[in-house]
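Fold these two proteins, one after the other.
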Amino acid sequence: MLLDCAGKRLDLSQPVVMGVLNVTPDSFSDGGRYLELDAAVRWAASMVEEGAGIIDIGGESTRPGAPPVSAQEELDRMLPVVERLARELPIPVSVDTSKPEVMREAARAGAGFINDVRALQMPGAVDAAAASRLPVCLMHIRGEPATMQQEPRYGDVVSEVHAFLTERVQVCEAAGIPHDRILVDPGFGFGKTLNHNLRLLRHLDRFTALAAGVLVGISRKSMIGLLLNAPVDERLSGSLAAAVIALWQGAKIIRTHDVRETVQALCVCAAARAAG
């Protein structure tokens, strides 16, 4: 299946690696590294060389406890990078945002994909996404980043996340976003305990029929740190294991900070799956 991302194609018949590019001072893993435009462009180009199929640009940290930023501040951080990368890279550029005004300006600047941790729930976001005619990813979150990890509770996390994403897909379709332009993300680490995250990973195949594909972001997250008792910069092996499990369970796009290693791990996994 091919996604049209503002004229650049994303082939979901093969595993797609989404490279993370945070232009923020406070993201949990790479905050502050790519605030300067040329540094951000160089890092994006290196991820393309390593095999990334799409680059995801974030201008507002959504780590647990992160404070919100204004739309203007997010645009000031993100827009110059979107404009450069949309012009210079051969692959699509995604914007990791929940704000409708940021979606509109990013689309005008050449972004080809909208990745929203709030599943287009902010006022005006569904209409802005529909007007952009871009593919969208709807992620589940319980609460807001500032408070989401304060004792999150579910009766059945898999069923509740599934029901939420089903409802959001329906809202988007009613607003004119075609089913084949919608992806879903169960939101690992966004208002979930370690056990919640593990259950979602174990039952990820439950989500594959909801939309055109499942996008998963587990790279370097606290669930990996808890399992391995490892700091952020020592979570590569656990992140790769989670990525392989996600692909085996039917995920189409894996969002990661470690592109080359993830591409290689998914290549082996995909070959084994294709062998039947």
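Now the second one:
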Amino acid sequence: MTDGPEPTSTRGSFLEHPHDRHVPMRAALLGGRGLPPPELAPEPVPAGCPVDRVEEVLRRQLTAHGLGLVDLGAPLTSADLLELGHRLGDVMPETDPAVLPNVEDGRILHLVSAEGDTADTTRQPFATSALSLHTEGSGRPTGDQPRYIVLMCLHPGDDENAAQTVLVPFAGVDERLRPTEREILAHVRYDRPGVPPVRRQVDGRSIFSFRDFQADTLRWVCETDRFAAVEVRDALAALLAAMYEGGAARGLQWHPGLLAVLDNTYAFHGRSAAPFHGSTRHRHLKRLRITHRSGEMAG
């Protein structure tokens, strides 16, 4: 005896149109203008403070805000940065051959915005062009996605308003979607094995696993046949518009010794554009990606 027919799914693709609402909104948000800072102000931590004290401050902030910000006065050494990462969870190795020249000790990625504009997505973290909004590791299974992204500033670059890390909280994005759009996105995922739906609920919070593909094609699967391909396309376009609606966006203006921990289950992040020609110093951050030791993405 069976419980009923097997659920059916549909497949399709999404490619943005020049007239989509989010296209000019993206250009305006990431074009390099100054953005309001996060409501959470960086907490000063005395120079030479033990790493466990830094961890204590960050965990308190992350619990309350989904974001941690501490002002260390000067950058941590790489050894101390790795120790902090290991305290927060499992530090992911950097294995992509395209970024290995920028990797230290197998896990610290040096993000230096020095390469100008590029269409190569593997090199965009090192470019001076904008980096579209995304969640980290959205194409991975849930347990393999980073929970935390640790960013530490060595140098902010020439223009304090440029190359800001842009944060857009999930809660506001979710509120801007219609109920039907939320339902569709809860059934849609990338067309690859094991990845979570674009939108899911964990502990009463909406969590997104998604990036703006820009000019690239997003191939999707909808785990029900209740929605037509045009409805899925409209829901994805609505999500992108909700992401780039600028009122909720906040920008981190970097200075040496500022350390940020982004909770990947609370906000989209990206990078605003920075000047390239004529720059004497480019923005330089160190990055760690941290997974929970349990492999759980719950909030």
